[in-house]
Design a protein that fits this description.
With 326 residues, the protein is mostly helical. Helix content is 78%, strand content 2%. The protein has one domain: ABC transporter involved in vitamin B12 uptake, BtuC, CATH 1.10.3470.
Length: 326
């Protein structure tokens, strides 16, 4: 019975933590649970959520993408230059951000898939390369977007802010891709057992290329969504965001060991991280202690992932022993 309860708690750990966080901050700061504030939390978590949904595809294949923060910076910057110098407008800028993300994802995929270099090494290198390219393009100066960009970011459709709509759209597309398409099933298969996937005839290189394209594209879109709400971009934009993105995915149930995770869980994980950030502000926690609290959240995410992996290994060993006994 205890084993079943622990397994159930581990499977639903994100929801349990989310509920505990809401109750805790609700007691400390009553205004925290107001509908307006909860709505703002979802809106503020939209850009991290979009990027985290993308990186979930990479994690599912046992990969990692450390360049997310730099892609969030460079992709929208390229879009900004297109909007300013060529007058493509917000819609055109959004399209350029997508294309820029695809290009950066292709660079990562080329070195990882075609040259066989470890994802950690490649994306660590492109983290610096992409940010360096953006710094060179701007000469380290702030880039200001036109009012049209802010109008887009602050607009709503049927009372729902555009950032939330884009977050929801990314979530639905990712969920359907992972659960209803051959590509999604093959992503899980590669993460569960890469060698078995190859023997089954899955073109692992093509799938791995696809997940890095998805990760970079969603990161670029995420940066565009955030900039549309603040209207400017500086050299520190997106710096360190890769850790929030990875933590959101892992908190939502995605495993660093591959093969486990969902788009819905990642969306919850992203919202949880923003809930903690907002709750710390509402509670009046010392500004210098807030990074420590966030660090604890990330530590919990990694710990839960390790526990899930351990439970899976134990279950597999029991299944093998049962087969041998039979």
């Amino acid at each position: 019975m205890n084993t079943d309860l622990s397994r159930l708690a581990l499977r639903n750990a994100t929801i349990l933590i989310f509920t505990a966080v809401l109750v805790l901050f609700g007691l400390v700061a009553p205004g925290f649970l107001s509908p307006e504030n909860l709505f703002n939390i979802v809106k503020q978590s939209s850009f991290i959520g979009i990027a985290a949904i993308g990186i979930t595809f990479v994690l599912l294949t046992r990969g990692i993408d450390l360049s997310v923060g730099s892609v969030m910076y460079l992709g929208p910057l390229i879009a900004g230059f297109a909007m300013r110098d060529y007058g493509v407008g917000v819609a055109g800028g959004f399209a350029v951000a997508i294309l820029a993300g695809l290009a950066m994802g292709a660079i990562n995929a080329f070195f990882i898939v075609r040259l066989g270099i470890a994802p950690f090494i490649v994306t660590l290198a492109t983290l610096f390369f992409f940010r360096g390219a953006g710094t060179w393009m701007t000469s380290s100066r702030q880039f200001d977007f036109d009012r049209e960009m802010l109008d887009f970011g602050l607009s709503s459709v049927a009372g729902i802010p555009v950032p939330i709509l884009l977050f929801a759209l990314a979530l639905v597309i990712a969920h359907l891709t992972l659960t209803r398409t051959t590509f999604g099933k093959q992503v899980y298969a590669i993460g569960a057992d890469p060698e078995a996937a190859k023997k089954a005839g899955i073109r692992t290189g093509t799938i791995e290329t696809g997940v890095f394209l998805i990760s970079a594209t969603t990161a670029s879109v995420a940066g565009f969504v955030l900039i549309s709400q603040i209207g400017r971009l500086d050299v520190a934009f997106g710096e360190g965001r890769e850790f929030d993105v990875i933590a959101a995915a892992v908190l939502g149930g995605a495993s660093l060991f591959g093969g486990v995770g969902t788009a819905w869980g990642t969306a919850v994980g992203a919202t949880l991280i923003q809930t903690v950030k907002t709750g710390l502000i509402f509670s009046g926690i010392n500004l210098y202690l807030q990074p420590i609290a966030l660090g604890l959240v990330i530590f919990v995410a990694v710990l839960l992932d390790s526990l899930r992996a351990w439970r899976l290994q134990v279950s597999q060993r029991r299944a093998i022993r049962a087969e041998v006994a039979d």
